[in-house]
Structures are given as structure tokens and as C-alpha cells.
Write a structure and sequence with these properties.
- Helices cover about 5% and strands about 40% of the residues.
- The protein is mainly beta.
- It has one domain: Single-stranded right-handed beta-helix, Pectin lyase-like (Pectate Lyase C-like).
- The chain has a 23-stranded parallel beta sheet that branches. Strands 1-3-6-9-12-15-17-20-23-26-29-32 form a twelve-stranded parallel beta sheet, with no helix packed on it.
Length: about 350
């Protein structure tokens, strides 16, 4: 009898231990309330399941900080998003990133999650950090207060968005709007239905990003506010901008971005200047259908770039009647004795050229 009792006790202890272990391994945390004080999400509570109840988003209010540990997964129910009005510190590691995804994402099973399952992440305010984060299946249309869908919206001062992946979104990937003195570098932004990155009303240094495979443009500059020539407030350099169906870089802006040392290849159009005052220099503009397309009514200088294997034209001008011309001197056209006239349209001055490829730093 004693032996039987001991056996039953061992079985009971084993079962209870197994249950405790299972609970400790998988401890879903449901979050359906706004965060009004400093909060810390750890792997012990992961995954965090976001249900916003009767409203669209879970809000971190002003003066509150949400800190998320490496390795944490945050899953969003349909029609929900994360709205940071205070501060977000999401600092993952290369081997244990922080993941923001759909509640239907079960780790890669085909058909389980779709682009646009959830709205996305809004970060406003100052001094937030998103490093080694992975955002996917966001971009649902209809987020109240925003006229375009996105996976990540950044606004405010001194936010650092680095070493991260934003992919498989329904709308735009990353929207930088009134984004001042922040950093956007070493990210992968790919496979969105619309633009990879939208920049409006922002001062940003954007470098070493891979922006690839988006349904419209890789980078779309859409700021139509008054141009400021005192300094160039948008610096796009050392990026890989490839395989975007529209343009690698599309400009419909009155700002004066510095565009240099980028790899712009395999896009519909490499760089499309509708309006703006850009400086375009020291880029590899290769293997696009059109290298650079220009439609504007003031002079534009394009120099020290490498043009090769663009299918239609290296530079195509679609000008207004009073157009003053493109100065495209001192570029490399793929040969030290190029037939430049076959590679450009009327309105482009390319009387001098480089006799070897320009050095590109990226």
C-alpha cells in the first residue's frame, strides 16, 4: 500500500511539474488597456497579445515609457495597432530580435497571416529606440488620423530606428513625417504593396538601408512645403535601393535632398525627379528601365554617377516648355568613349564625361 501511495505521489508531482514547466514556457499575456505608467515587457510574459477592445490602438500615453526586452514577441489582433505618445525602448539583439506581428502568425505557416492584418506602430515624441526589431504583416488601411497605411510611422525628435526589418506590409513600409534629427540606418525594408519609405516634412540622415521589392517606389519624398536652401535636411546615402516596381527614389518635393553613394538598380526608374532641388552624385544607377527621369522647370545638376545597362535611357527629360536643362557632365557612361547621345534625351548637357567609373562609398 505504501509503495502504491508513493507511486501515485510521484506521478502527481511529475504531472504538476510538467504543467508548471509548460506554463512557464508558454505564458501568453493579453493586453487590452492603455499604458499610463512605465511598463516593462519581458520574455516571461511573451508573447504579448494586443486587443484594443473598442478602439483601434493600444496607447502608451505621454510621460510613460514602454520598455521591451530582447526576444519578446508582440502579436496584434485584427484592426489594432500600437500608438506611442510617450517613449518606446525596443532594443533587441541580432540573435534575439523583438518581433511585432499578426496574431495569426504561427511562425511561418503559409496562409496563416497576411499583409494588412493589423494597423502598425505609431511613434511620436522624442528619444525612442527601435533596434533589432522585426515588423511584419502590418499596414492595414483606415487607421484614424492617417491618410495612408503604413507598418511604422515615426514622428518627433531624435528617435533611432536601426538594424531592423520591416516587411510584408499591405501599405507603405516606414513613414517619416515631421521626423527631426533622427537616424534611420542598417535596416531592411521590403515587400510592401506601396512605397518602402515615405519622407515628408522631415530632417533625416538615412544610410546603409536595403529597400527592396516594393510595389511602388523604394523611397518617396512627398514634402511640398517651402524649400530651405540653408542646409540640406534630407541626406540619403549608402543605401541599396533595388527591385522596386515604380522608382527607386521618387521626388515630388520642394526640399533639396542630398542623394549620393547609393546603389540604385533593377527598378522601373532609378531616380524620378518630378520637382525638387536635389544634388545627385556618386551613385551607381544600373540596370533600371530608365536611369533618371526628370520633369521640372529649373536646372538640375547630375554628376559623378555611374550609368550602365539602363534599358531605355540613362537620363530622360520630360520637360515643361521653359525648361532650362539637365547638366549631366562628368558621369561614367560605361565606356571611356561613350555614345552618350544614344543614352540621353534632348535637354541633357553631357559634353564632358569620366574616363573611368566614379568611386562609390557604401
Amino acid at each position: 500500500m505504501k509503495t502504491f501511495f508513493k507511486f501515485c505521489l510521484l506521478i502527481t508531482l511529475f504531472y504538476c511539474g510538467f504543467v508548471v514547466l509548460a506554463l512557464s514556457v508558454s505564458a501568453d499575456t493579453i493586453v487590452n488597456y492603455d499604458i499610463s505608467s512605465d511598463t516593462h515587457w519581458t520574455t516571461d510574459g511573451s508573447p504579448y497579445l494586443i486587443y484594443a477592445d473598442s478602439k483601434q490602438d493600444l496607447t502608451v500615453v505621454q510621460n510613460a515609457t514602454l520598455t521591451i526586452d530582447p526576444g519578446v514577441t508582440v502579436k496584434f489582433n485584427l484592426d489594432t495597432g500600437l500608438n506611442i505618445r510617450g517613449q518606446l525602448i525596443a532594443h533587441g539583439n541580432s540573435d534575439t530580435p523583438i518581433t511585432f506581428t499578426s496574431i495569426y502568425d504561427n511562425g511561418g505557416s503559409i496562409g496563416s497571416a497576411y499583409p494588412g492584418d493589423w494597423y502598425g506602430i505609431v511613434v511620436k515624441g522624442a528619444d525612442s529606440v527601435l533596434k533589432h526589431v522585426h515588423i511584419k504583416y502590418a499596414g492595414r488601411d483606415g487607421f484614424i488620423g492617417y491618410d495612408k497605411p503604413f507598418s511604422l510611422y515615426l514622428s518627433g525628435y531624435n528617435t533611432h530606428f536601426t538594424n531592423s526589418i520591416v516587411e510584408d506590409g499591405y501599405g507603405n513600409g516606414v513613414w517619416l513625417d515631421y521626423f527631426y534629427y533622427g537616424l534611420v540606418h542598417n535596416n531592411v525594408i521590403r515587400n510592401h504593396e506601396e512605397n518602402g519609405v515615405v519622407i515628408s516634412h522631415s530632417y533625416v540622415d538615412m544610410y546603409n538601408n536595403a529597400i527592396q521589392g516594393n510595389g511602388k517606389n523604394g523611397i518617396s519624398l512627398e514634402d511640398r512645403s517651402q524649400a530651405n536652401f540653408s542646409h540640406r535636411k534630407v541626406n540619403i546615402h549608402s543605401n541599396s535601393i533595388q527591385w522596386n516596381e515604380g522608382s527607386g527614389i521618387y521626388m515630388n518635393t520642394l526640399l533639396a535632398p542630398e542623394i549620393h553613394d547609393n546603389e540604385v538598380s533593377y527598378n522601373g526608374t532609378g531616380i524620378n525627379v518630378q520637382t525638387g532641388y536635389p544634388r545627385i552624385h556618386h551613385n551607381n544607377i544600373l540596370d533600371n528601365y530608365i536611369g533618371v527621369k526628370v520633369k521640372m522647370n529649373w536646372p538640375l545638376v547630375i554628376s559623378n554617377n555611374n550609368f550602365e545597362n539602363n534599358e531605355s535611357y540613362d537620363i530622360q527629360v520630360e520637360s515643361f516648355a521653359d525648361y532650362s536643362g539637365v547638366i549631366a557632365e562628368d558621369n561614367w557612361w560605361g565606356s571611356d568613349e561613350p555614345s552618350v547621345g544614344d543614352e540621353i534625351t534632348t535637354g541633357v548637357n553631357a559634353d564632358s564625361w569620366l574616363y573611368e567609373a566614379a568611386e562609390i562609398i557604401n
